[in-house]
């Protein structure tokens, strides 16, 4: 039985580290975007929930790849920061392609939410693939 649990310490170390990175991501992303994701979601604005969920998945997908491929926790944290920056740049790029994205999300324009979510997941998937070193 103990053989099966030999790596439980590493599991918890990586799980807690990934959880901390995810919480940091959520905090930073929600501060950087001009709209208040939490307020919009509380108001049942589907477009905002879709966009934010896509962004979160766009961060978590590379994070999962990092957990698989990272050589140590420092590697996980450093490349986790890169994954975070990719998501912030994705939002910035979409903001240029689709002006007034925050207002569109606040107005519950589903097309805007879906587009931002897809771009975020796409950027995250490409980031994850690039992290397979």
UniProtKB/TrEMBL annotation:
Matching Pfam families: DUF350 (PF03994)
Membrane protein topology class: Multi-pass membrane protein
Keywords, alphabetical: Cell membrane, Membrane, Transmembrane, Transmembrane helix
GO cellular component: plasma membrane
Domain of life: Bacteria
Record-annotated membrane-spanning stretches: 12-32, 44-70, 76-94
Stored InterPro entries: DUF350
Principal location class: membrane
Compartments in which it is found: Cell membrane
PANTHER family noted in UniProt: UPF0719 INNER MEMBRANE PROTEIN YJFL (PTHR40043:SF1)
Family recorded in the similarity comment: Belongs to the UPF0719 family.
Name of protein: DUF350 domain-containing protein
Organism: Spartinivicinus marinus
């Amino acid at each position: 039985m103990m053989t099966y649990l030999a790596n439980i310490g590493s599991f918890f170390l990586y799980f807690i580290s990934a959880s901390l990175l995810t919480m940091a991501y959520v905090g930073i992303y929600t501060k950087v975007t001009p709209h208040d994701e939490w307020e919009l979601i509380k108001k049942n604005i589907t477009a905002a929930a879709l966009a934010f969920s896509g962004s979160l998945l766009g961060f978590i997908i590379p994070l999962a790849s990092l957990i698989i491929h990272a050589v140590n926790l420092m590697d996980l944290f450093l490349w986790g920061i890169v994954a975070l920056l990719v998501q912030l740049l994705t939002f910035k790029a979409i903001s240029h392609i689709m002006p007034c994205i925050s207002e569109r999300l606040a107005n519950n324009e589903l097309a805007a939410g879906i587009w931002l979510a897809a771009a975020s997941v796409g950027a995250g998937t490409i980031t994850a693939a690039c992290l397979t070193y």
